[in-house]
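Question: I have long wanted to understand how a fold can be written as tokens. Here is the record:
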Amino acid sequence: MDIMQAVKKNQEGQAEVCRRKAWCWCRLLTQ
């Protein structure tokens, strides 16, 4: 795999994790 491709994929994975955490926090705060 191309290194740049791997880095991009990893960044997308990190962003997805952040989105899920933010969603969970929003759910908790708006209960």
